[in-house]
């Protein structure tokens, strides 16, 4: 399992399974990030999802890791120019690392996020966005994945896998998808996470 996942993503070093992007690693500030994610929208206007003001005071290392995750999601989920409306940082209470709002198509990251969590958090929120713009295939994907695993695992074992993937959100298919993706992009997870993540990536490639 691990070999297939590593070869499908491309291993770079022992620490992570994703390749860093030279353009992103060369960023010197938020202006570069805003420029990098610029796209032409359906009305022919140039737009960027990066809310520069919302990233004020963010360290360069965190910014780069977030951008690597955003880029990874943009490519893996075939998002192209269908980017979130806004991407910014916010002050969260509790332990929230990031969130995504379907209504406003807005991604927010915790302002004090540790850089080592930034990549997978960005992939997680981009997965929510992809699920949203594709009409929430997460429900069907999860159902199919459970059906497939039922030949090897009991329902109780599968429910335990769901809990290991998404904790208290284990009954929410869109969270199972997003958590499966954020584990998968780091070569972690369990058979259900791998099944859900790979099925979603296949769906994204076909669109
Ligand atoms: Zn989530």
Task: Kindly summarize this structure in a few lines.
The protein has 207 residues and is mainly α. Helix content is 52%, strand content 9%. The chain folds into two domains: 1-133, Zincin-like (2-Layer Sandwich), CATH 3.30.2010; 136-207, no CATH class.
Give structural notes.
The protein is mainly α and 207 residues long. It has 2 domains: 1-133, Zincin-like (2-Layer Sandwich); 136-207, no CATH class. 52% of the residues lie in helices and 9% in strands. It is built from 9 helices and 5 strands. The strands form 2 sheets. Strands 3-5-4 form a 3-stranded mixed sheet, with helices on one face. Strands 1-2 form a two-stranded antiparallel ribbon. α5 crosses α8. The radius of gyration is 17 Å and the shape is globular. It binds zinc ion. Zinc ion is lined by residues 124, 128, 175, 178.
Percent helix range: 40-55%
CATH class of the largest domain: Alpha Beta
Corresponding CATH architecture of the largest domain:
2-Layer Sandwich
Could you please say which CATH topology of the largest domain applies here?
Zincin-like
Bound chemical compounds: zinc ion
Radius of gyration, in angstroms, nearest whole number: 17 Å
Strand order of the largest sheet: 3-5-4
- What kind of sheet is the major sheet? 3 strands, mixed
List how many beta strands DSSP finds: 5
Number of DSSP helices?
9
Structural class: mainly alpha
Name some characteristics of this structure.
207 residues; mainly alpha; Zincin-like; three-stranded mixed β-sheet; 9 helices; 52% helix
